[in-house]
Amino acid sequence: MQERPNYQIDLDVRQTWHRLSRMYNQKATTYGLSMSVGFILLHIDKEGTPSTQLGPRMGMEPTSLSRTLKTMEEKGFIRREEDKTDKRVVRIFLTDEGLNARYVARDVIFDFNKKVESRIPKDHFAIFQSVIEEVQKIVDEELSEPNTEN
User: Fold this and answer.
1) What is the pLDDT of residue 149?
2) 5, 12, 65, 110: least surrounded by Cβ within 10 Å?
3) What is the CA angle 71-107-9, rounded to 5?
4) Does domain 9-120 have CATH number 3.30.70.20?
5) Rounded distance, CA 32 to CA 37, Å?
6) Are 24 and 37 in contact (CB under 8 A)?
7) Is the separation of the CB atoms in 74 and 80 below 8 Å?
8) What pLDDT is stored for residue 148 in this prediction?
């Protein structure tokens, strides 16, 4: 990568995520899905996933997650059930329709990953993984620091 003056890693991450998001949404719409729906489908466990765990897994705000889950329920992709042992917990389960949509989402992601893996050497992936993990640690540290402004 060519070094730039005033390099901003966050700009590259944001631009790349925006492009990935556009690509996945474009592919998902051909199946009547969205990227958000596809990722949620992939994060629901066979034994059901508490709705409170999906937001942190997905990096989604609760309001956006609630709206998306409601749409998914209306389309017949998911069903909600009270937890058998803790009635305060609502578990999300995939329906047969949701399972079929999950396979579509998985195939789209696998196809993209194969294309990336065929063009980027494995040792580059190891470096990328190391760098992105360190960036995530730095972000976590920044988030845990008290806000000193004002």
Assistant:
1) 61
2) 5
3) 80
4) no
5) 10
6) no
7) no
8) 60
Q: Which of 18, 30, 44 is nearest to 102 (CA)?
A: 44
Q: How many CA atoms lie within 13 A of 26 on its CB side?
A: 6
- From residue 108, give the alpha-carbon distance in Å to each of 28, 30, 60, 101, 134: 8, 11, 21, 11, 28
Residue 65 neighbours by CB under 8 Å, 6+ apart: 40, 51, 54, 55, 58
**How distant, in Å, are the alpha carbons of 11, 38, 46, 88, 106 from that of 42?**
27, 6, 10, 24, 7
Does the pTM surpass 0.85? The reply is no
Distance (Å) of CA 77 to CA 3, 12, 40, 42: 46, 34, 10, 12
**Which strands sit side by side in the sheet containing 78-82, from one edge to the other?**
49-50, 90-94, 78-82
Mean pLDDT, the chain, whole residue set: 90
Q: What's the pLDDT at 108?
A: 94
Question: How many Cβ atoms are within 10 Å of 21's Cβ, its own excluded?
Answer: 13
Encoded tokens for 133? 């993990």
Could you say which residues of the chain have pLDDT below 70?
Answer: 1-6, 148-150
Q: What pLDDT sits at residue 122?
A: 93
Say if residues 28 and 38 touch (Cβ distance below 8 Å).
yes
